[in-house]
Amino acid sequence: MSEPTSAQTIIVIGASSFIAQAFIEQACHQHAKQQQPNSPVAEPLQIITVSRQASIKLPVLTDSELAGRINHQHFRCDYQQASIEQCVSDIAKIAGTVTRIVMCNGILHSKNQHISTNEPGLMPEKRIEDIDAHSLEQLFYANSIVPMLWLSALTPLLSQPRHKVSAEQKCVISILSARVGSISDNRLGGWYGYRASKAALNMLIKTTAVEYARRLKRVKLIAFHPGTTDTPLSKPFQANVPQGKLFTPAFVASQLQQIMDNSEPDGEASYLDWQGEPINW
Ligand SMILES: NC(=O)c1ccc[n+]([C@@H]2O[C@H](COP(=O)([O-])OP(=O)(O)OC[C@H]3O[C@@H](n4cnc5c(N)ncnc54)[C@H](OP(=O)(O)O)[C@@H]3O)[C@@H](O)[C@H]2O)c1
């Protein structure tokens, strides 16, 4: 286990996500741009990744000096509550001041039969008869419960003097939601479980923001809709996406970076799309 650092820390949860990977790459390059080449006093950046995967690779940085100023630690997690709590306890031992958190967890479908239960894979419901209890449980667990367990476990860490941002700094937490989670925007119907689990996620984020307005005033919460992005999650549904509306993860990650940079803690959660435009809850 590494020693604690005084670096600014970015935590990326669900780091195997294509959007997460692109976000990490952008964060590394943005940090590179901000540094004076060969400056010995350059601020280090700490990137902490969490995933079900055993390892996550950071992009190769061309400047070997710069690579030394990015410090990466990875934690494997199965997203059960005990595992999340253990991860946060391990993160607390090594993290610096936490200024950014991105949570990318989400499922829409799974093709594979469940190994132990032989349950069929899940697909979004087209009609009400497609409702299936096990699929709903999986969707709510991955899309609503996992991000909330992380928020719950991370809140004490974000309050600790060693990790807490100062009054001049901010910590921005973006949680990947989806426009289909908007209750007021639901005109098409369908996708019951995915919609409802993202709507539940939005409510959990909004409720957390009410508490943060009292307890963590310098923390901003964002429920982020990336737009349809070319990742495994959207793959089976890309055929009807209008030309120019299927975004690359790199584009979405760059939009998210800018949105996080420009967001200020205001005591409220924001529900924003990839353009930074608010979505009605
Ligand atoms: N792609 C789109 O068009 C689109 C549109 C709207 C919203 N979104 C949202 O964007 C987020 C990122 O998705 P993506 O498009 O980058 O998809 P992706 O590449 O398929 O990534 C899937 C993500 O979900 C996590 N995950 C997979 N199975 C899980 C499970 N059973 N429990 C908990 N986490 C699980 C993965 O975490 P590990 O690192 O642990 O594997 C990874 O972070 C999701 O929340 C998604 O709902 C995507």
TrEMBL record:
<dbReference type="InterPro" id="IPR036291">
    <property type="entry name" value="NAD(P)-bd_dom_sf"/>
</dbReference>
<protein>
    <submittedName>
        <fullName>Short-chain dehydrogenase</fullName>
    </submittedName>
</protein>
<dbReference type="InterPro" id="IPR051468">
    <property type="entry name" value="Fungal_SecMetab_SDRs"/>
</dbReference>
<dbReference type="InterPro" id="IPR002347">
    <property type="entry name" value="SDR_fam"/>
</dbReference>
<dbReference type="Pfam" id="PF00106">
    <property type="entry name" value="adh_short"/>
</dbReference>
